[in-house]
Amino acid sequence: MALLRKLLGFAGVAAVALGMGGQAQAAQCGNNAGGFEAWKAQFSREAASQGIGNRALNALAGTTYASKTIAADRNQHSFKLTLQEFMQKRGSATIVARGKKHKASNAKLFASIEQRYGVPAGPLIAIWGMETGFGSFLGNQNTLSAVATLAYDCRRSEFFTDQLYSALQLVDRGVLTASAQGAAHGEIGQTQFLPKNVLRYGVDGDGDGRIDMVNSKADALASTANFLRGHGWRPGAGYQQGQPNYAAIQGWNAAGVYQKAIALMAADIDG
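== Lytic murein transglycosylase ==
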């Protein structure tokens, strides 16, 4: 489970993870399963030298090459659709209709989040609906195996090496288990945070003293608002293309068609 106890000094942990990424590049990347075990052994030695503990190293040793993750990474065809095709494929009308109901039934929560972070309900609900169908499907891939596979894979090794170090930090602290499951690229929780973003932007939205991106919609949504604020969100400013807060939505996902869809659905939800 991606159950996250409140991290004291989590910003410092994130800084350590950032600093570690470059150190792991001596491990030889590869483009198929053949070299994964040898890469894991080399990476593990480097991680140990950087202070990663036995709990995380043992979890890493148990990972397997995630073929489904590689297939998903190579076949993100929906991002090549037109905006209309993409929105239809992703069920935008359903997301908006259900999103309006979630906004009404969770009015107090969304008002609290907007007061704290300046982000209105619409973008948060659109992301929540787009990513996991409002928490109905969080993924069924082993998180650590997915991230380790992508760190090993040559296509985006540097980026996912940082994510792997962050995931190992979470495992070391007992806040991410070796058996935790999520999306194909290692995303965690109801709005699908990568491990490094959990460290950087994860917050306790329901006031229970811990950060639980899986079971707490308040934590997931407040963390998403914190992410958007961290990417330049300005309270009260617009978030459509050409408006100040569109850049924050761009920070959430690099695909232009996704960004446009989120902004349009959010506007419909916000009314």
